[in-house]
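in:
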């Protein structure tokens, strides 16, 4: 992107978008709320990721597919970039800063899917790549590094999906500086979780190894292994979770990802895919995939997810104080009445490494008796996850028809400041730019286009 365009976009995205959150019914506003749209004009996005640099918290970067946006003022303004290059078909992005302030953008590229849902049947060229930025997202290495890649003509080709990257920035860890990524591999007969690590700042990656002891079903639906994400404890122990059928499964590595203990289910959940007779009105699909976080001071592990055990969809959390051996019964994070018919969904959790506060962000429909108008809520716990206060974050509700919000949103927290990123239905009249040459238009019913927004909350003066 030319400098003049960058300057224009920085002005457009940064000016006039300081939108204070208006309170939902019964909810106080997020303190220090600031919301900005980071989608370049005419573009759309979903499945976003966000990261903050612990070495320089003014550096905040969001990404959604082919494009990203960086901030050097703590999320007040953003400038768009294309970390995947002009022609790469990037998807399922995730971001992580390492202990030296390098930023890593992990993504998949699929030139040809297999059969609908049954992706291991007949896929083409695809793979998982990582690209590095050494300046907080302004510029990126020219070439991405392949973690795993298929040319498309191999007889044993599989499809790689939903990669997530995380890093070890723990000061006392023997593996500090290591990078880790895990993802789903769709095979003809099963789905499995693969894992790879880098010990040289992302220049090379280890040969992928399977860490899921039990395989999932081979179709992208309930019964597969899905929603992989990991975290690192202060001693360098890695905890990785995913959905495996109707449970959350945990895998642990104590040697920097060289080996893993056999993965095991830790507690039951309802189906992670929400569809069936109703699904979530106005949304093309939604997932309840888990996230895991660790409080380095208390040693507590947390896992959040969402499911419809109460009829409508709610957000839940469970805690472990014995390194994942046992877990507390599920507790609702959203504090509206049980069985009120309002969905809370697509949650994401962040644990502040500075003070152990737990934050959970989610879409929330408690204001609308018809369960259509959607806002974003942020829940906060300062007592080890035993109680949560809910705050209104987004400024106006949105609705859509067949809107694809993605399979996840994202949030991060550092020293009392929280940075969330999410997709919203674009405002009426939003003009979408024509897709790049060679890009196939999505099939199926018309979709309300979606844009990406970043919200900032400031709890530094709040107990």
């Amino acid at each position: 992107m030319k400098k003049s365009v960058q300057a224009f976009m920085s002005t457009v995205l940064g000016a006039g978008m300081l939108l204070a959150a208006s309170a939902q019914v019964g909810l106080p506003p997020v303190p220090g709320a600031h919301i900005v749209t980071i989608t370049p004009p005419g573009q759309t996005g979903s499945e976003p990721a966000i990261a903050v640099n612990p070495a320089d918290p003014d550096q905040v970067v969001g990404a959604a597919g082919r494009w990203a946006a960086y901030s050097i003022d703590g999320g007040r303004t953003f400038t768009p970039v294309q970390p995947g290059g002009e022609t790469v078909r990037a998807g399922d992005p995730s971001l992580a800063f390492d202990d030296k302030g390098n930023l890593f953008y992990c993504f998949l590229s699929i030139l040809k899917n297999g059969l609908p849902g049954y992706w291991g049947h007949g896929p083409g060229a695809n793979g998982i790549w990582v690209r590095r930025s050494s300046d907080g997202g302004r510029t990126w290495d020219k070439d991405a590094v392949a973690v795993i890649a298929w040319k498309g003509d191999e007889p044993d080709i599989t499809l790689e999906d939903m990669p997530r990257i995380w890093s070890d920035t723990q000061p006392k860890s023997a593996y500090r500086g290591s990078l880790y990524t895990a993802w789903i591999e769709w095979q003809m007969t099963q789905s499995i979780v693969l894992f790879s690590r880098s010990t040289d700042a992302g220049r090379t990656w280890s040969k992928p190894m399977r860490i899921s002891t039990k395989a999932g079903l081979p179709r992208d639906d309930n019964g597969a292994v899905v929603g992989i994400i990991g975290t690192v404890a202060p001693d360098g122990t890695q905890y990785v979770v995913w959905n495996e059928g109707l449970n959350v499964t945990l895998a642990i590595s104590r040697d920097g990802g060289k080996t893993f203990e056999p993965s095991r289910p830790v507690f039951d959940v309802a189906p992670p895919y929400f569809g069936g007779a109703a699904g979530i009105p106005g949304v093309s699909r939604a997932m309840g995939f888990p996230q895991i976080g660790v409080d380095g001071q208390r040693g507590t592990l947390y896992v959040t997810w969402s499911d419809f055990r109460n009829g409508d969809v709610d957000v839940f959390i469970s805690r472990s104080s014995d390194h994942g051996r046992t877990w507390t019964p599920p507790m609702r994070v959203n504090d509206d009445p049980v069985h009120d018919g309002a969905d809370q969904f697509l949650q994401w959790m962040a644990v502040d490494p500075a003070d152990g506060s737990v934050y959970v962000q989610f879409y929330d429909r408690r204001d609308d008796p018809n369960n259509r108008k959607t806002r974003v809520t942020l829940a906060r716990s300062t007592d080890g996850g035993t109680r949560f206060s809910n705050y209104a974050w987004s400024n106006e509700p949105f609705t859509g028809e067949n809107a694809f919000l993605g399979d996840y949103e994202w949030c991060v927290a550092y020293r009392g400041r929280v940075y969330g990123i999410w997709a919203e239905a674009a405002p009426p009249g939003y003009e979408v730019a024509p897709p790049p040459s060679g890009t196939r238009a999505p099939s199926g019913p018309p979709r309300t286009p979606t844009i990406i927004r970043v919200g900032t909350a400031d709890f530094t003066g709040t107990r």
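note: Residues 19-46+55-62+269-463 form one domain.
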